[in-house]
Amino acid sequence: MISANKDIKYVKGNYNNLYLATKIQVEIFKDNCALLEFLQCLLKVNNHTDFYLIYQKGELAGFVSFYDGACYGSKNEIWIGYFGNLPKFRNNHIASQALLDFFSYFKSNVGGGGGINV
Hints:
The protein contains three helices and four strands. By secondary structure, it is an alpha+beta fold. It has one domain: Gcn5-related N-acetyltransferase (GNAT) (Aminopeptidase, 3-Layer(aba) Sandwich). It has a four-stranded antiparallel beta sheet, with helices on both faces.
């Protein structure tokens, strides 16, 4: 996953960054913990797909997770599970850029190459 903005980098979730993703998620959504959702993404269960850490200029800024809309009867759709940026990184268009980047990626790379609906 590559951003159109050279200052933004995405790192796909894995077992090595699972704790970091959970830590930042709890910082953003204080009354909720997405550890189980992140594990489901890694194990590809319950239609969870992937999660990504979002960096701006090398500093961890936020995260996003996705799941397959097929579980709700929506073929070729990807749904956002969680999406958040730390307060320091809000109101500077990181979230907008991330959505544009991921929509572009999913439109051309998911659903057998036929893309998805966004």
